[in-house]
Amino acid sequence: EPLQWTGHPDTALLSLILLGLWGAVPFTMIIYMAALGGIPEQIIPASRLPSVRPEIDALLGPAVDQQRLRLHFGQCLGRNLDLDGLCQQSDAVLLATGLWQERRLPGDDRVDGVTDALAFLEAAKSGRLTELPARVAIVAGGDSAMDSARTAATLGADEIFIVFGGPRSAMHWH
Question: Which percentage of the chain shows pLDDT scores above 90?
Fold first, then answer.
């Protein structure tokens, strides 16, 4: 049975390239998060997307076991990782930043109770956030907004307001 990563049109080619490289060239992955899986594993509610860990372990496990792939977690460029040093100790460096920071509203950091969707979803999924006020407003209409609305309801919000500046047909629904 093919893995979703190798069978999905958006990731199949990249997966095959990486699998081919692991056979010939050992390399190191330096990862900002504490574990592999990124947004799906740390942010998206399990009710919408089950854990991706089995697929990741099946895909990367053999390379890690054979020491063709070395993983370093909790690293951040400019914080505890220096690009110049990384370039000096590596033959090649590929920066694949992914998505981890959302756009913010100007001044939202000065208002109590305002947070971005990714931080909210991560806190809820990790168990650091267990309750909310009765009324919650969500500004946006994409995937993160819909996941946030569902999570807010799960955490006990009685009224959830979605504030979206486009037509209802442009909103994402899962």
Answer: 14
Residue 4 makes CB contacts below 8 A (sequence gap 6+) with 55
Q: Which long-range contacts (CB under 8 A, 24 or more apart) does 64-72 make?
A: 67/26, 68/22, 68/23, 68/25, 68/26, 68/27, 69/22, 69/26, 69/27, 69/28, 69/29, 70/26, 70/27, 70/28, 70/29, 71/28, 71/29, 71/31, 71/36, 72/28, 72/29, 72/30, 72/31
Structure tokens, 150: 């569902």
Burial status of residue 46 (CB atoms within 10 A of its CB: 0-12, 13-18, 19 or more) = exposed
Q: How much is the mean pLDDT over the chain?
A: 77
Report strand pairing: 159-163 vs 27-31: unpaired
Write out the E strands in 48-99: 69-73
User: CA-CA distance, 50 to 137, in Å (whole number)?
Assistant: 26
pLDDT digits (tens, 9 = 90+) for 70-113: 777 777 777 887 888 877 877 767 666 555 556 667 776 777 88
- CB count, 10 Å around CB of 19? 15
Q: What is the CA radius of gyration of the chain?
A: 19
28-56 pLDDT tens trace = 777 766 667 766 777 778 777 778 788 88
